[in-house]
Amino acid sequence: MPKWPDAPLSEVQEVPIDLLAPADSPRNKGVDTRHARLLAASDAVLPPIVVHRGTMRIIDGMHRHQAAALRGERHVAVRYFEGSEQDAFVLAVRENTTHGLPLSAEERSAAAQRLLESHSQWSDRAIAAIAGVSTKTVRSLRRDTESARAVSRVGRDGRARPVSTADGRLRASELLEKDPEASLRTVAQKVGLSPSTVRDVRERLRRGKDVVPQRQRTHSTHRLGPPSASVSATPPGQPGGTVLNLTRDPSLRFTEDGRLLLRLLVMHQLPTQRREKLIASVPPHAATAVSAAARECARAWSAFADQLAASQGGVASGERRTTAP
């Protein structure tokens, strides 16, 4: 659970009842008079009331405060909370969902909505745990608030995590393509993801799928900026430079077909030094067949290039059409 509501409380102090202000309570109907009378009628020593020192508003214990007044007591035992008013409300919600008179489902949902507005950086699970609602309910409420745009959220363990892992997934895919045997944990540490997420990236690469799930592509596209900003890093004349530049283009990387096209282009690059080694690896009896297959691939790519150029209004300026061998 996030650390803010767990701030230590003061030692117990006796405080005049008249100094305490009504609670900023998650309860819509205020004090349940019947419940307060039952507490007043009991002989039990009531636990201290939790009070926000900055405003003297009761955080937890409105029924105990009312019971003490019904008993005719002029002082009540208090423990002070030193945090902000927003964190005081968090503490009020948490305390009222873990003991005493239970909050209604409507009150818990309303409390979750307020927590989303005041602590939008918290994860859905963290808010759900405090408000006593399901994670699904918080997720639904978050979609209707500006807090859905947060870049990162804080989980129940107090650690901040990105809302979207899109950028990390893309970096992980680049590392895995360079070194397919790299361990999941090593890649995860380099890109700031969990090993399980890196495993998912590896599986998506293996199946030729987009490494970024559909629901995260909006976040990633927004943060990476327009495609044109990342397509000019390497001079096109440099061997492999055109393909390398294309692999940085989000408009291709964030679609499954675009991803497949990039993988095909990367796979079909044939640097001179690599070409000589591949030729040397072909046995004499297979030379004719391999040559024919290579020509088929060349014709297929040539036809693809011609069709692509035609769809864009003709061959681009400076592009020279060639005939496949």
What does this structure look like?
The chain is an alpha+beta fold and 325 residues long. It is 50% helix and 8% strand. The protein contains 15 helices and six strands. Strands 1-4-2-3 form a four-stranded mixed beta sheet. Strand 2 and strand 3 form a beta hairpin. Helix 4 crosses helix 5 and helix 7 packs across helix 9. The longest helix has 25 residues. The protein is rod-shaped. It starts with 12 loop residues before the first strand and ends in a 14-residue tail after the last helix. 24% of the residues are buried. The N terminus and C terminus are likely disordered.
Overview features:
alpha+beta, two-stranded antiparallel sheet, 50% helix, disordered N terminus, disordered C terminus
Percentage of residues in helical conformation: 40-55%
Oligomer: single chain
Low-confidence stretches: 1-5, 146-154, 219-237, 315-325
Radius of gyration (CA) equals 32 Å
* Strand-residue proportion: 5-15%
Structural class of the helix and strand makeup?
alpha+beta
The average pLDDT value, as a whole number, equals 75
Order of helices and strands: EHEEHEHHHHEEHHHHHHHHH
What shape does the CA trace take? rod-shaped
